[in-house]
Amino acid sequence: MRPDTILKWHRNLIARRHAAISRPRRRGRPRTLRSIPTLVLRLARENSSWGYRRVHGELLVLGVKVAPSTVWAILREAGIDPAPERSATTWADFLRSQAEALLAADFIETVTLTGARLYILAVIEHASRRIRVLGATAHPRAAWVTQAARNLVMDLQDAGSNARYLIRDRDGKYPALFDEILADTAITVVRSGVQVPRMSAIMERWVRTCRRELLDRTLICNQPHLLHALREYEAFYNAHRPHQGIANARPLAPLPEPITNLTNSPGYASAAMIASAEPYTSMNTPLDQHG
Asked: How many Å apart are CA 34 and CA 22, to the nearest integer?
């Protein structure tokens, strides 16, 4: 046996050992952390004009190192086009981005038991979904609508609202003085397009909700009865009813803190408390008989 043969065996042994140590335990690319797809989808949805390359660049700025193809695959799997063709802004995206400064108003028509037609004027805040029922009348004349606008302005000032635009349709019930009163408080009236209900989608949604939950379930006798029902529904809508558009919160009442300790929750009742509340008599102890 030659010395070169022994040296060759030794070199092969070292090479195989080094290859075994450096071989990855899992084949293929490493798994993507669960937080990365969540971040990628959030960046893509909040910035509709970004393609997967721009999202990948923002991830690198944040210190997240992934391949561009990984970002592409995440967007594709979520049903979002990775190409920058998402630059077109929809009405829903526009209204959501400008919600803090937007109000919407509309008239609702209903009929009483006697067949009389009543008109309801309501205003909703896009950001908080708070509804304000300005009144109901059988004759929405210019003087009545103008006074409703004054009441709305005073209510907004008392609440410290930052609204700068009010969306309304082209209904002839709105007099010119209605727009002027709002303009004096730096609120610009924007009239929606003809047959474009999505420009005031949030208000139209509330109209549908009001009809389904109140007007279609209540027999209205007269105007005072309608006003009473509307005030009750307004209080319920603003203080109790959850809204999916604002993460199931309520306009005037935020969501309560999540319960982390069950024993500290208000409705918690332990087994000892339940046992102590049981009656003292049992099936084995006969009741006292008098007489």
From this structure: 26
Q: Which of 38, 34, 35, 41 is nearest to 76 (CA)?
A: 41
Amino acid at 131: I
Asked if residue 107 lies in contact with residue 140, where contact means CB atoms within 8 angstroms, the answer is: yes
> What is the C-alpha separation between 79 and 68, in angstroms, rounded?
17
pTM of the predicted model as reported, rounded to 2 decimal places? 0.60
Cβ 98 vs Cβ 164: under 8 Å:
no
Q: Which of 179, 155, 150, 175 is nearest to 165 (CA)?
A: 179
Q: Which of the following CATH numbers is that of domain 95-246: 3.30.420.10, 3.40.50.300, 3.30.565.10, 3.30.70.1450?
A: 3.30.420.10
**pLDDT tens digits, 45-65:** 888 778 888 888 889 888 888
User: For residues 72 and 32, what is the distance between their CA atoms, to the nearest angstrom?
Assistant: 13
What is the rounded CA–CA span in Å between residue 238 and residue 230? Answer: 12
